[in-house]
Specification:
A four-stranded parallel β-sheet has the order 3-2-1-4. The two termini are 19 Å apart. The longest helix is centred in the middle third of the chain and has 13 residues. It has one domain: 5'-nuclease (Rossmann fold). The relative contact order is 0.20. By secondary structure, it is of the alpha/beta class.
């Protein structure tokens, strides 16, 4: 995880995987940033598995795993049980859902820039960037 700079939120990956409205913006971001500079939380990874399986897109999940982790160098990061107090405090302080607070605390703990389309992070000191805001 030495080179990791960006924590990519669930909604960014889904935008691309499901070919949604801002998929091309995400594609440009992923094309310009080396995969070893990208991180994903274990929470996001498992959420993608749940969402894609519910949409009957198991092959998309397997392709994502190949692209991100096997052929790519995306780092997987996670929080420990002792970090949950910080997650709960973050939920209360910034009025975030658990998943957003988890991402926020992970970004803070590992010193990462959060990449997300979720405007809820705009209420926090760290904020967030969209893929289009990242220039290399």
């Amino acid at each position: 995880m030495n080179d990791c700079m960006y924590l990519v939120d669930t909604n960014i990956w889904l935008e691309r995987l499901l070919d949604q409205e801002r998929s091309e913006e995400v594609g440009r971001f992923l094309a310009q940033i080396p995969s070893e500079r990208l991180c994903i939380t274990d929470f996001t990874f498992h959420s993608l598995g749940v969402i894609l399986s519910r949409l009957h897109q198991a092959e998309a999940l397997l392709q994502f795993v190949r692209d991100a982790f096997i052929e790519g160098a995306v780092s997987l990061v996670g929080l420990l049980p002792e970090n949950m107090e910080t997650v709960v405090n973050t939920m209360q302080q910034f009025r975030l859902d658990f998943d957003d607070a988890y991402q926020y605390v992970a970004a803070e703990r590992f010193g990462l820039t959060l990449i997300s389309f979720d405007q809820d992070f705009d209420r926090t000191p760290r904020g967030r960037n969209t893929p289009a805001q990242i220039q290399v």
